[in-house]
Amino acid sequence: MKLTSLTLAVIATLGVALSGNAQAEAEINSPVRVAIDHLGVPWVHKDDSAGLWRERPLPHGQKAIATAGGYFHYHFGTGPDDKGYAYYEGATFAVGEHGNAYRYQNYDWQSVVGCWGAKDVSSFTVDHAYCVNGDGTLKKFNDVSDSFEGYYAISNEKIKKIDVALGGVIWAITESDKLFKYDGVKWAQQKVACGDLCTLVDIAVGGGQVFVVASVYGSNDGPQSVYTLNNGNLVKFGSFYNIDVDREGVIWAISNYTRTLFLKRPGMSEFVEDVQMSYKVSTNIGS
User: Fold this and answer.
1) What confidence score (pLDDT) does residue 248 get?
2) Would you say 239 and 259 are in contact if contact means Cβ atoms under 8 Å apart?
3) Residues in a beta bridge with 263
């Protein structure tokens, strides 16, 4: 029975992946995802006809500590030789263990200056990509200069984690365990009712929901789990170590128990384990 269930799960996952890939090639934008394994090595996945996770280490053997997936465009009839071709938008980033930022271009990681002692990075498009600088402020990516620039700060707070949502709206967690939202004009603190009983670890926004990775006092699910934010209350979502939502509404999560990657596409009732990454222990996912 166990073997039969596993076989059916694999077939179902492959079927979903294949149907998703076929659909992706008909879309203008499709996700590029990045998972960081337990050795700190990034794995890149482009949702095209190949749909494979490929190991893409950072330069000089550096470990990655944070990542942000981007998108690629698929054009028809505009290539010099082909009826259609795909190219990267350039909104995929990673942060190395020494706080240096990297951008994924031409199938490799390229160093990006301007953000030092970086703690996190997130992007929605290449026009809305930010890194968390070592001083707890944000810097925005400038595609013309190919560097992080500017200064986005929350008064009397130091930012530690961010997620850039639809339209470039920024959600941020500060070192004092407060949650803020930036609409392009001002920062507004968001209510989180658990107070001193929880530590906010990470944030992911997408599909109409705000997901908070938190360590909650009294929880039996390990050091951290995923919750949804509902009127200021943290509602248990799942026993996951980390979570992210891509532009197509696919939820990617790392299991608290196996530390392997799971996904849930729109219309699916349950999470399924990603077949290709089922043997890889992961620590972070960005898309």
Assistant:
1) 86
2) no
3) 252, 272
